[in-house]
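Quick entry, no commentary yet.
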Amino acid sequence: MACHYNPAMPNESQHLPDPNRLSVLTASVLLAYALAQWVEQQSFSLELNLAGLLVELPLNLTATATLLAAGLTATGMDWLLRAHPRFVAINSWQHWLLPALTALVVGVPLYTFPTGPAWWLMFGLGGVLLLLVFIAEYIAVDATDLRYPAASAGLIALSYMLFFVLVTVLGITGARLIFIVPAVFLAAFLVGLRAINLRLYGRWEFAWAAGIGLVCVQVAAAMHYWPLLPIQYGLLVLGPLYALTGFSIGYQEQVPNPRLALEGGLGLAVFCIMGLLLSG
């Protein structure tokens, strides 16, 4: 059963994850990244013919390690949460979403760019991001925690940033549209779903999240062949995600329609203007 916020409940509980479990989990995920980077590997490709479209799926340690890191992060998050005094096992899966997405997004640039100072910088930043996500998700287990509003706001902001990084990296690597579509939809769906859940204190809106994902996919597909910089591409796809997620939250909170339209339009306009200004 999801935990819903009750203003009458005392906001006195404050819990932090066990330092030993937290350090072991973070180190394990980072070790998976490092080992995959340094181990010698051979690359294979699986060619599929889908309705006349030739698709090559890379089969190597890099692709496998990315998925394993995400799985390790999700299971590790569950292990970390089990030490929380208000942990409910049946409801723990919602806290796996953002950590797993973080591991995927952190892994993409680490496995794409060569080893060097920039790689080590991304490696360190990735570790910090994972650490912050683990702590924030732990706090978010208890909606009566004094730090819940700050933790949920941080998780939502971080999820938007991860989505932007993912779309930008897809643009940098020149990924084919057939790979961009599922990646953008899944990421937008998860970000929208978790953001709505956090803002509405435990409510799940799968239909809204799916609609947000479909709109983001259409925008990403329409702009895929435009002569855009990767960072422009990321901003222009992030705009609809931000605006529609905010609109869905406001609609559920019964915010007046004029205010909803104004806030959503301003958010979309800001990202579009930023993207257009970068063209110069």
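second:
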Amino acid sequence: MDKQKIYFPNLNGLRFIAAFLVIIHHIEQLKWISKLDTLLGDIPFVGVIGKLGVVLFFVLSGFLITYLLLAEEKTFDDISIKKFYMRRILRIWPLYFLIIILAIFILPYIKLFTLNGFDINKVHSDLATKLILYALFLPNIVLSMIGVIPYASHTWSIGTEEQFYVVWPVLIKYLKKNRIVLMIIIIVSYLMIRFFLANPISDFMPYKKIIREFWSTFNIDCMAIGGVFGILLFRNDRFLPLIKNNLIFYFSLAFVSFLMIKGVYIPYIQAEFFSVFFGIIILNFAANENIKISLENKYFNYLGNISYGLYMYHPIGIMMAINLAVTIGYPSNWLIYPVSLILTILIAGLSYKYFETYFLKFKHKFSKVLSGNSTSH
């Protein structure tokens, strides 16, 4: 049977926006580590957008992966878990392991990339444990148990994605009834466990601090929220018109933008609260032809295609920009920001063309349902 092709407009643009939010946050973090003046603490927006950019990635993943799995099931009357895993391996693993190798075995030996307080001895402490956890795709446990590893710590979200990918096709394939209820159970269960870990009643647990910090990064509930919107769209649910309409889209976009600009933090449910509005925005961008805002152009499409590289390489690009600014005696945002972005795009673009594409060209062998530019998803 011929492969089915599904294309959602605007999602590449959203991927770039998510990466850009993370880049802004990390520019300020790395400026602070480099003992430069920073906007952290002065502009609330900068403090919240890093995690929210990652949350947007999570909701996008939940939405798209769920929809594509349901499309595969409908068209081929089955979901190939093996092929799903192979697609994820080809997309995620090569760049992930390259970044880990760079962060642990190459960059620590280059003075340009040495951060204050993170010399080679610090990076290589507990090395065996770090390598085992990274190899098992548990970088979020490295972060919670050992701490920051320059140029690799942001891979915690890749670990979360990989852990999501392990369970998601199994759940979708074998739990066919009441899938919306399944998503709600996942969301509620995640929140209940998090509240339990935050309560003194759980103090009896060994390694509670590590478990609690790991759980705070394991945002499968945000992906499940994305999954809810994917299911609603796929089955053209009777509630869909309440979500897929211009009024709710523009309100959600304006509301979320206002909250982010103000740096609003919602206690206990920050990620989940924003995930709901992100889901509304994603669904409308993907399926509402009546909205007047479009992210469909060659620039956003290209930046979306390389967004994985933008996310993975951006700390390297930022530190190159910061060191350049310090060296020439002009550590200004007017220099650091554009140079950070230009270098990150350049590195990610070269990586995509000359490294990632080598692996991505094999994805079609394991893809029954193609999503737009199938190499990028």
